[in-house]
């Protein structure tokens, strides 16, 4: 389902906007920095879903653009039969960030979805925004043009939260194969949580309203189906969504952030990290965590996001810079929880005898390193076994680390900035890579140490039962 949170720049201590959240899928997750790429004439990309997807469809080839942007993203290996690898969030070199968040369509629309549906799926749209959009508005227009020209391949409805330093947009794509979508603009004074993606009343009586965009047939189709009567408010959630309004978890976290925004110090980075970490919202289903500061640094290489390899309740946020050459091997794709790996080998014997699908696509050299996701998941399960004893300790440790990293960040940026200004861009990239790798690996080492310590104390104090229901904090959603 995933979770997104946007905070407008007028409400933050540092005067910049933020987009935060996590992906909510059970398969493997890994961190990637995709370089800017140039593409040849006539190059095509494959988008959509296959006949084996939960809502089946047909793959489609669409034209690639001449150049795609450098971006940081988290990818994962499986969701509802949609072709992998998948992505639902990240940041590009132009300062555009995106989060993909489930948003179900009404049952009648889902039932209308043709088994031959075509067009980009939810992950394709997130990736295309990261690769092509220079502003959040461009991201909305890109999604609209893709749906209009190629259609939309869905699994029951979805949404995207797209943000840049000046504004953000909630975009909801409807199921049904009717090319229905709507978008709402968020600004400097906005706080918006998405889970699921939500749009309320659209002022259709003002077609040129600056805060809303929508498909040309959005209103006429609703009227034709008898879902909207002339003169009634056009409540998008009631007409095209689940009709439940804003969910309880959304109301809770938005109220918490509004209260913090009302303080003299407003909302700080630690508050936003808390909003992604709090055990009321974050548990085993959270595949990773992200907090993206939305600003325009003097050099694009200095854009960054804060990343956790699993849900932030069990891992600390560490900075990942656009200018880094690579991420540590431990944070790349491993076999742990990767779809299909249970039937594959890291051995050529079967592949050479006519079974190429038996060979794992994951490099053996990468698999020889620790899996950061597996290390932090182990810690998560140890902590949840005895939450009262260990969760406060782990949380306090992560908060202390993040405080130190946040305090160091201005000096790190100034150092890289000085190198770039001196025409030493390569040195700046080396420096950012060294720093980013060091802090990610330090977090991993600490996660391992905490897991070893907590396991030893668990065995001594409580024992480790061989069976029983999984334990976790009580969550609002």
Blueprint of the fold:
Layout: E1 3-7, E2 17-22, E3 29-34, E4 37-38, E5 44-47, E6 60-63, E7 67-68, E8 71-76, E9 86-92, E10 97-102, H1 107-112, H2 122-132, H3 136-150, E11 158-163, E12 168-173, E13 181-186, E14 191-194, E15 201-202, E16 212-214, H4 218-224, E17 234-235, H5 236-240, H6 248-261, H7 269-277, E18 289-294, E19 304-308, E20 318-321, H8 348-352, H9 364-367, H10 372-385, H11 387-421, H12 425-461
Antiparallel strand pairs: 1-2, 1-14, 2-18, 3-8, 4-7, 5-6, 8-9, 9-10, 10-11, 11-12, 12-13, 13-16, 15-17, 18-19, 19-20
Helix pairs in contact: 2-3, 10-11, 10-12, 11-12
- Give the oligomer, counting copies of the same chain as homo and different chains as hetero: single chain
Net shape:
globular
Structural class comes to alpha+beta
Indicate the CATH architecture of the domain at 3-296: 4-Layer Sandwich
Major β-sheet, in short?
A: 8 strands, antiparallel
Q: What is the residue-mean pLDDT, rounded to a whole number?
A: 97
CATH class of the domain at 3-296: Alpha Beta
Roughly what fraction of the amino acids lie in strands?
Answer: 15-25%
Family: Belongs to the peptidase C69 family.
GO molecular function, one term: dipeptidase activity
EC number: 3.4.-.-
Protein name: Dipeptidase
């Amino acid at each position: 389902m995933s979770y997104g949170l946007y905070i407008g720049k007028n409400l933050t201590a540092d005067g910049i906007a933020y987009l935060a959240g996590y992906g909510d899928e059970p398969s493997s997750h890994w961190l990637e920095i995709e370089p800017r790429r140039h593409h040849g004439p006539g190059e095509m990309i494959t988008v959509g879903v296959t006949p084996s997807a939960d809502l089946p469809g047909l793959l489609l080839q669409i034209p690639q653009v001449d150049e795609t942007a450098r971006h940081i993203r988290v990818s994962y290996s499986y969701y509802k039969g949609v072709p992998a690898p998948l992505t639902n969030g990240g940041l590009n070199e132009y300062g555009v960030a995106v989060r993909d968040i489930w948003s179900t369509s009404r049952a009648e629309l889902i039932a209308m979805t043709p088994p031959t549906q075509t067009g980009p799926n939810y992950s394709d749209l997130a990736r295309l925004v990261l690769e092509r959009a220079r502003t959040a508005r461009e991201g909305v227009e890109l999604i609209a043009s893709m749906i209009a020209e190629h259609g939309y391949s869905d699994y029951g409805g979805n949404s995207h939260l797209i943000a840049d330093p000046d504004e953000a947009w909630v975009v909801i794509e409807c199921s049904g194969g009717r090319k229905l979508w709507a978008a709402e603009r968020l600004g400097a004074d906005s706080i918006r949580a998405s889970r699921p993606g939500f749009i309320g009343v659209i002022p259709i009586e003002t077609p040129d309203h600056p805060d809303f965009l929508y498909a040309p047939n959005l209103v006429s189709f609703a009227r034709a189906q008898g879902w909207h009567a002339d003169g009634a408010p056009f409540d998008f959630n009631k007409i095209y969504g689940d009709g439940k309004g804003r969910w309880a978890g959304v109301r809770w976290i938005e109220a918490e952030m509004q209260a913090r925004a009302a303080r003299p110090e407003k909302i700080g980075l630690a508050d936003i990290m808390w909003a992604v970490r709090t055990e009321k919202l974050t548990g085993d289903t959270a595949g990773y965590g992200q907090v993206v500061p939305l600003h325009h640094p003097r050099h694009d290489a200095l854009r960054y996001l804060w990343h956790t390899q699993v849900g932030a309740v069990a891992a600390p946020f560490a900075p990942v810079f656009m200018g880094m050459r690579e991420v540590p091997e431990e944070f790349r794709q491993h076999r742990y929880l990767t779809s299909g790996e249970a039937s594959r080998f890291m051995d050529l014997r079967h592949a050479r005898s006519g079974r190429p699908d038996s060979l794992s696509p994951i490099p053996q050299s990468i698999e020889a390193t620790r899996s950061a996701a597996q290390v932090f998941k182990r810690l998560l399960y140890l902590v949840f076994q005895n939450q009262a004893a260990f969760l406060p300790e782990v949380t306090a440790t992560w908060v202390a680390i993040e405080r130190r990293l946040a305090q160091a960040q201005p000096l790190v940026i100034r150092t890289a900035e000085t190198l770039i200004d001196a025409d030493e861009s390569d040195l700046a990239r080396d420096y950012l890579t060294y720093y980013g790798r060091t802090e990610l690996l330090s977090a991993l080492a600490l996660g391992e140490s905490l897991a070893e310590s907590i396991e030893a104390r668990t065995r001594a104090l409580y024992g480790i039962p061989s069976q029983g229901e999984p334990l976790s904090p009580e969550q609002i959603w």
